Amino acid sequence: MSSPDARQIRFIKRPEGPVGAESFEIFSMPVPDPATGEVVIRNRYLSLDPYMRSALNSAENLGRPIEGRVVGQIMASRHPDFREGDWVFAMGRWEQVSLVDGAAARHVNTNIAPASAYLSVLGFTGLTAWSGLKHYGAMHEGETLFVSAASGAVGSVAGQIGKINGLRVAGCAGTDDKVAWLLGELGFDAAFNHRTAPDLTEAVASACPEGIDIDYENVGGAVFDAVFRDMRYGGRIVVCGAISQYEREPRPCVPNIGDFISKRLNMRGFSVRDHADEIHQYVEEAAGWLRDGRLKYRETIVTGIENAPAAFARLFSGENFGKLVIDVG
Amino acid sequence: MSSPDARQIRFIKRPEGPVGAESFEIFSMPVPDPATGEVVIRNRYLSLDPYMRSALNSAENLGRPIEGRVVGQIMASRHPDFREGDWVFAMGRWEQVSLVDGAAARHVNTNIAPASAYLSVLGFTGLTAWSGLKHYGAMHEGETLFVSAASGAVGSVAGQIGKINGLRVAGCAGTDDKVAWLLGELGFDAAFNHRTAPDLTEAVASACPEGIDIDYENVGGAVFDAVFRDMRYGGRIVVCGAISQYEREPRPCVPNIGDFISKRLNMRGFSVRDHADEIHQYVEEAAGWLRDGRLKYRETIVTGIENAPAAFARLFSGENFGKLVIDVG
Questions:
Q1: In B165-254, which residue ranges form alpha helices assigned H by DSSP?
Q2: What is the pLDDT of residues A295-315, one digit of tens each?
Q3: Mean pLDDT of all residues in B230-253
Q4: Are B247 and B19 spatial neighbours (Cβ–Cβ below 8 Å)?
């Protein structure tokens, strides 16, 4: 019996400079059968995230679909915890149907939020914000948190977690609309447009007049240089991302290491992968904040898996607003 | 009754570029009388350290003697713990006689080591190495420790503490003599001359073929850039000093912050001042290592307080070998 085909987007060409749709091609593949312990998911939503950019630097990944988190329904299961029709989220790939180890899939509860939220505010994106601040931020009430790319999927959750914990929160984003959303809906204490600010040092200083205790860093580059100047004694720099750096030669600059001594700074890079086992604890906490209205989120949902490559490219040009999700359909 | 005079070196002119003797002048001052709780110390040894360079950037310090740790004998005491003739160490100043709060002075035990050692291996210099590695280094047996300025007063203790804890230890220094001392007497596993190495990246890589787990950073600049490249996953950068940076405009460079994420690096600046209350614990441990021959040290003792300014300048040109101490005489 021949299986029906499912579409898959494969990475076929390493980008030189900014990534574009030409790095990808659509293929058809037969729907796989699960072996013992495995499940097959009909993906409904696919998460597109800046961290995926690094996979495109590796020749090893050529000819393969990029990995990505998905939400969908079980099509076939040989794992005792899952039955056909169950909604789950898992690490899948850029494809309509993903075969995964059942042990790595998790049920989603659509009573808390729509299924797509498990790729954004209730998923690893939210967990990234939460685990970074929790483990490396050492938040204290009344301190100042600065978030770069603050309207982004991770940044917006980081800023709101700061507010929930009683911090003063400032941030930057790349359009006036995004800045207005930070100040209005999300309750940031200060925010500016880093693309139009005439002087980043001044913009950061006036957003954070008493300096910065915690920098939740998503961007790197010139914004980070300005933020670094205003770090306070004992400041923590939580390095989550460096999106300004992903599409160019490594920029070998952050400020003078002497400042690390005089201000006792701590700078720590981390990945949410190190905190994957905390997802249940996070979802429980975040679900409460969603119910209370203390945690808000915004998604950009692009329909059609064939549009994933172009949508992915927009992550780096800043045209996207909130969490980018593909509705696989 | 008029008191005898004592000489004091005051800071009179901020240096433009490398510090020289012209930034200082010798004055005479009357020997002070202690108030209740105070003691007067006839300084025998004065510690000169790179960290003092930052005091010369501040106009507030003009006209005053620079602070520095001293070892000497009590001349007059109005503190119950000290009697005339006791040997003590304390934070004094560049002067023959220092008036200090008795609560901040400590007895030295010259049965363990000569009194001058309380300014080097048994003093805050040693404590700097020990507390930095202990609190921020997270040493594990078999890991690789890299120490820059490894023959220096702090670096040499840091490297030996690494060896005592079962680490592989590599380092760099600025003359072949110093390198030979690291490899010979101190038992470093690898060392190179950073002034003559044709390629620092290659020199670090061949000194640390499996990469670096802990960088005990004293120098900054080009050496640090090379070390940073070879940091291993989970690496710790303990920032103690940046001597290459003290005499120039801040150099706004360390490598790409993306590496912080991919390697989960942690970079922490610290100061021994935060660990002053651990000096007793350190001295106890270090005294044991000195007795066992597991901890060695080297001092350059310059005689005459009038020679302190010129000797201080040599700290930054690299002409000095081991801990620089002035024998006040």
A1: 176-183, 200-207, 221-229
A2: 999 999 999 999 999 999 998
A3: 81
A4: yes
Nearest Cα neighbor of B210 from B182, B180, B169, B240 is: B169
pLDDT band at B251 (very low <50, low <70, confident <90, very high): low
Q: Name the token pair of B216.
A: 């005990």
CA distance B316 to B297: 20
Structural domains for chain A: 5-120+298-327 (3.90.180.10), 125-273 (3.40.50.720)
The beta-carbon neighbor of A239 closest among B224, B261, B274 is B261
Residue A76 backbone class (left: φ over 0; alpha: ψ -120 to 50; beta: rest): beta
β-pair partners for B8: B27, B95
Residue reference for tokens 């160490």: B89
**Contact at CB, B260 and A268, closer than 8 angstroms:** yes
Q: pLDDT band for position B1 (50/70/90)?
A: very low
Q: A–B: how many Cβ contacts below 8 A?
A: 112
CA distances from A103 to A99, A106, A124, A192, B74 (A): 12, 8, 17, 43, 72
How many Cβ atoms from other residues are within 10 Å of residue A172's Cβ?
31
Judge if ipTM > 0.95.
no
Give B244's contacts in chain A (Cβ within 8 Å): none
Tokens matching residue A90: 């898992």
Exposure on the CB side of residue B276, measured as CA atoms within 13 A: 9
Length of chain B: 329
Find the DSSP H helices in B96-220.
Answer: 124-132, 153-164, 176-183, 200-207
Yes or no: say if A255 and A229 are a contact pair by the CB < 8 Å rule: yes
User: Which chain A positions have a beta carbon within 8 Å of B231's beta carbon?
Assistant: none
Q: How far is A238 from chain B (nearest CA, A)?
A: 9
B255 pLDDT above the threshold of 60? no
A183-194 per-position pLDDT tens digit: 999 999 999 999
Tell me if B29 sits within 8 A of B46, measured CB to CB.
no
Contact by Cβ (8 Å): B188, B216: no
* Cα–Cα nearest to B261, from A216, A231, A159, A276: A216
Task: Tell me how far apart the alpha carbons of residues A18 and A80 are, in angstroms, rounded to a whole number.
Answer: 44
Residues paired with residue A9 on neighbouring β-strands, in sequence order: A26
Query: A121-171: per-residue pLDDT in tens?
Result: 999 999 999 999 999 999 999 999 999 999 999 999 999 999 999 999 999
Least confident of A97-101, A111-115, B1-5, B250-254: B250-254
